[in-house]
Amino acid sequence: MYRLFRLIQKEFLQLRRDPRMFAIMLIAPVIQLIIIGYAATTDVNDLELGVCDLDRTEQSRTLITAFTSSDYFILTTFVDTPAELDYPIARGDVALGLVIPKNFGRDLLLTRSPQVQVLVDGSDATSGTIALGYSKAVIRLFSRPFMQQMRNNLRIRNISLPAVQVENRAWFNPELKSRVYMVPAGVGLVLLLIMIMLTAMALVKEREIGTMEQLIVTPIRGWELLLGKIIPFILVGIVAETVVVVVAIFVFHIPLHGHISTLYFLSFGFFFTTLGLGILISTLCKTQQQAMLITAFFIMLPFVYLSGFVFPIENMPELIQLITYLIPLRYFLVIARGVFLKGSGWFELWDEFAIMVLLGIIIFIAALLRFKKKLD
After folding, report:
1. How many CA atoms lie within 13 A of 296 on its CB side?
2. How many CB atoms are located within 10 Å of the residue 116 CB?
3. Where are the bilayer-spanning segments (predicted)?
4. Whether residue 320 sits in one domain with residue 207
């Protein structure tokens, strides 16, 4: 324990003497979380709207106003024929085109069911789908009073009109803001980057500056050396997690429905796994440049794409879904979003924690075996 304590003390001294590491540990997480919170969003606002009004009645103008009075659309193009909408949509100047046919107002007043055409730029499937959903919501709100008038007319004639009323309720994120969904996941992404980057360069740095040979000839054991590299970064991870959680709560106003102690305790499984990965990478590399490239291309990118951070795992092919079970970030995203948004506790999240611990043990054993080969 004395040797382990001295090694941990040495690691903290190295961190204190390297101001760049201090910036990575404290400043970089805040910047990354702010970027994720403000840039990594699927909310779509101020969509360019092109309109072709062939009816030009009070009712058609009211429909156009319903679109422009919302926060979703901005009227940028007004044309006389539907064909004139093709060019601005093809150029990307218009995200959604609205074509109002002739006799639109007359059909509304006669309690008929007029149709309008909505043209969506499908080159961006995500924005196009959201824009189509927004347009349906605007048209639904616009047509509500006319539908009520139709029901009243039918009641006068002693004719009943069956109606189904749907009450929608979104749990855990009532306003359906993507920021509320992305920022808790950003906590895991920031911790992943810090933990793996720092530990991946830990042993490599010793090798580059020539102190690895000195460590090898000391009585310290292999597992003590690896553990001495991991423990300081666990403490660094706790500090970094505290910083990003404070930013998430007080800057982005993300609700924390669960207990903060649950989040910290379950995070140790993620720390253990990611730090083990970093140590394993450091045993495979000879330079810090190699460690950074392997971390970026073989760890960070697959983890982001396959963890459910951006793309739903349910939409992936079955083979890829099986691979995602080996991604520790997948389980931590469930923990972070569960504690923040759902108020989940240990009982609901213990299986994710257990899987991360199991993965961490396997990775740490592999790193230990690999490091022994290097010592020989």
Report:
1. 6
2. 16
3. 21-40, 181-204, 225-252, 264-284, 291-313, 319-341, 353-371
4. yes
Residue ranges making up the domain that contains 13: 2-41+177-375
Cα(51)–Cα(99) distance, integer angstroms: 6
Same domain? 198 vs 52:
no
Residue 304 to residue 49: CA distance in whole angstroms: 33
Same-domain check for residues 34 and 141: no
State the total domains in the chain.
2
For residue 35, give Cα distances in angstroms to 179, 189, 238: 11, 12, 21
19 within domain boundaries:
yes
**How many other C-beta atoms are found inside a 10 Å radius of the C-beta of residue 340?**
25
Rounded to whole angstroms, the Cα distance separating 288 from 208 reads 8
Q: Are residues 218 and 288 in the same domain?
A: yes
Worst-scoring range by mean pLDDT, 70-79, 199-208, 214-223? 214-223
* Spatial CA neighbour of 45 closest among 82, 70, 8, 79: 70
Name the DSSP letter for residue 84.
G
My answer on whether 24 and 130 are in the same domain is no
pTM of the model: 0.77
Question: Are 210 and 233 spatial neighbours (Cβ–Cβ below 8 Å)?
Answer: no
Cα separation of 276 and 40, whole Å?
28
Q: How far apart are CA 339 and CA 262, in angstroms?
A: 7
Task: Quickly state the pLDDT bin for 334 (edges 50, 70, 90).
Answer: very high
